[in-house]
Amino acid sequence: MLKDHDHDALSIQKRLDEGPKAEYLKEWVYGGIDGVVTTFAIIAGVAGASLSPTIILILGFANLIADGFSMAAGAYSATKADKDNYDRLRVREELHVQKHYDGEIEETREILKRKGFEGEELDQMVHAISKDKDNWIDWMMAEEYGMSLPLNTPLNAAIHTFVAFVICGFMPVLPFVVGLNSSIIWALVFSGLTFFVIGSLKSVWSVKSMWREGLETFLIGMMAAGISYAIGYGLKTYMG
């Protein structure tokens, strides 16, 4: 969904002063989908074994907490790795500017040449970009490595992933908590609805419609849940 913003002078100044904001969409998407898939697979497998609702609830909640922490740890480590890699490359660029200033100037010139600048305009652009060292290095990080300063912090990424996993992963457990008849069928229905809601909310950050995003995520999620269930059922049958 495309959102416009005001372009009067005060609005522009306010927006630039606030700067870019960290967004945790991907943590909610993969944390939520993984929460539903893994929890439903466990519940379906246990229910297929005709175990008591109490056992189903215990295993379901155990999965929510254990796998939720596992996903959070993965999100923390991945986000930290991205930041560490950015910091490493930025330190290297700082050393290059100090030790190979002329070479970095030539590199800047070549990048701008490939963007279509030439002659006096090219010289002016090179001078303007390299005039401030920090801004120059930021520009080189974006142009040479395609990287910008990560806005997401490892801790926040972990928290968002964990909360998404627990909230969405709770949906397949809910029918057993409230004691609905044919709970496993309701678990499948709630899982499908959760997939659709995740996709629909994702449309806020997309040019695609709510229905298209919702249906796409529903199909992906249900396919993943079906595969997980099929593997578990096949192993249970094979193991006897």
Report on the architecture of this protein.
The protein has 240 residues and is mainly alpha-helical. The protein has one domain. It has ten helices and no strands. The longest helix is centred in the first third of the chain and has 47 residues. It starts with 8 loop residues before the first helix and ends with a helix.
Secondary structure tally, helices = 10
As a percent range, the share of helical residues equals: over 70%
Uncertain spans, ≥5 residues at pLDDT below 50? Answer: none
Mean pLDDT: 85
Provide the gyration radius in Å.
Answer: 25 Å
Distance between the termini: 50 Å
Q: What oligomeric arrangement do these chains adopt?
A: single chain
H and E order: HHHHHHHHHH
How much of the polypeptide forms β-strand, as a percent range? under 5%
Question: Number of domains in the coordinates?
Answer: 1
Morphology: elongated
Largest sheet: none
